[in-house]
From TrEMBL:
Signal sequence, renumbered to the chain: none
Organism expressing this protein natively: Bowdeniella nasicola
InterPro entries: YkvI-like (IPR038728)
PANTHER family linked: CONSERVED MEMBRANE PROTEIN, MEMBRANE PROTEIN
Lineage top rank: taxon: Bacteria
Membrane-crossing residue ranges in chain numbering: 34-59, 79-101, 113-132, 139-161, 188-208, 220-242, 262-286, 298-317, 323-344
Record keyword Membrane present: yes
Keyword annotations of the record: Membrane, Transmembrane, Transmembrane helix
UniProt-recorded name of the protein: Uncharacterized membrane protein YkvI
Length: 426
């Protein structure tokens, strides 16, 4: 369970980091532009991100959602659910578009390539990743994340340690950064809402892929803390080195490049990986949503969305961040309120479901492992627990059986009774 929690956390960080602060442009406009108070805003955002991460993944697991409208339909009025669904669908496309534009800006700044080249490479990678299932997509995203964490922390630590400007100089310089947001408190909340809006769809899918809401929630909490911590460190580093990064479309890349050209090369590759993480998460969740009733349309839909986003990416990365992000963030504030209120209302139900699924897994282990006793009374309790769950009976029987099967097969001291797979029925 610990391994699953950590992998979920890394996938959650990887999902949001591309749009959250990969380029540094987002951090400049949302936090650094407000000077030292912007750093306070980043810390506030980090704490709220941890809470919302836990809530989103836990709700996804609780309802075993395979796309975001499942959760919205359960926690809000049908009309409001449709509005939220449309908003998230719009957000997925917009963020995917920004990621393709960001990939072009990244390679242009570091290697002098035409913008369309980097954007085209990113578009092709997103299409290729669409051939994977959700678990493999989450694995790919999570695998890149540790490299992101190490490089961001190392580069930011160096930048902070080598800073030589006074706070008054930095605050004066920060005041010249254009921002469409009026105050650091609103900017901080807007950023959290933006992060939630861009990550909620794929995060719900990742949560829905897990049977244990407790483990899923812990993964979201840990992922939110990691992401928020990285955000805060990046904000402090960019603030400390503001004079050298203020005019760059990719401030994080410039920050590392100023340390050493070789480090800049590595950072350009890592930023590209961060952008890929978020881009593939957005397009995967978007195509999953529009093809929910006709799964065969998933890949064609993904290809169409990516190609349209590629065409729209020529508007320019900095402009897209400045205007699209705050709009998404304002509407995302409503989404935060709905999710938090729903979670507060259903905390006791979620707690009961966590215990129920633990009980179901324990009984399923007794039934499927050959050397453990399993009585008719155990079968009665298993059937009763499954019928009381919020998840469809047959779906839950199948998924628990397959998960316990993998668990038994991984245990060298246990032997599977394959004759009782997969339904767990009497």
């Amino acid at each position: 369970m610990l391994k699953r929690t950590v992998m979920t956390a890394l996938a959650y960080v990887g999902l949001m980091v591309g749009a959250g602060f990969a380029s540094g442009q987002e951090v400049l406009q949302y936090f650094v532009s407000f000077g030292i108070w912007g750093i306070v805003g980043a810390i506030v955002a980090a704490l709220v991100l941890a809470l919302t991460g836990m809530i989103v993944l836990q709700l996804g697991s609780y309802y075993r959602a395979n796309e975001h409208s499942v959760v919205f339909g359960e926690i809000s009025h049908p009309l409001l659910a449709k509005v939220l669904d449309a908003f998230i669908t719009f957000t997925l496309f917009c963020i995917g578009l920004v990621m393709i534009a960001g990939a072009g800006a990244n390679l242009e700044q570091q290697f002098g390539l035409p913008v369309w080249v980097g954007s085209a490479i990113m578009a092709l990678l997103c299409i290729a990743a669409g051939l994977l299932d959700v678990e493999r997509v989450a694995t790919v995203i999570g695998a890149i994340t540790p490299f992101i964490i190490v490089l961001v922390v190392a580069a930011s630590s160096y930048a902070i340690a080598s800073a030589d400007s006074t706070r008054s100089q930095l605050d004066s310089l920060a005041a010249t950064i254009p921002s469409t947001l009026p105050h650091w408190t609103l900017s901080s909340l807007n950023y959290v809402a933006l992060a939630l809006a861009l990550g909620v769809s794929m995060a719900i899918v990742m949560g829905g892929d897990q049977l244990d809401p407790k483990s899923a929630g812990r993964g979201g909490l840990l992922g939110g803390l990691l992401f928020g911590g990285l955000l805060t460190i990046a904000a402090i580093a960019l603030y400390a080195q503001l004079g050298s990064v203020i005019d760059q479309p990719m401030p994080m890349l410039e920050l590392v490049d100023s340390i050493h050209p070789a480090a800049g090369l590595i950072m350009a590759i890592v930023i590209f990986g961060m952008i890929f993480n978020t881009g593939v998460g957005m397009f995967y969740a978007l195509a999953r949503r529009v093809s929910v009733t006709k799964p065969g349309r998933f890949f064609p839909a993904l290809v169409i969305f990516v190609l349209v986003a590629f065409a729209g990416s020529f508007v320019g990365f900095t402009s897209l961040v400045a205007y699209l992000y705050p709009i998404i963030g304002y509407v995302g504030l409503l989404l935060i309120a709905i999710l938090v209120l729903a979670w507060l209302r259903q905390r006791s139900d979620i707690a009961e479901e966590i215990e129920r699924r633990f009980h179901i897994r324990r009984l399923a282990r007794k039934k499927l492992q050959q050397d453990l006793p399993f009585s008719p009374a155990d079968q009665h309790h298993l059937d009763k627990a499954i019928s009381e769950s919020v998840v469809d009976d047959q779906e839950l029987r199948r998924d628990v059986a397959l998960e316990v099967k993998d668990e038994i097969e991984a245990d060298p001291e246990a032997e599977l009774d394959a004759s009782k797979l997969p339904p767990l029925s009497s």
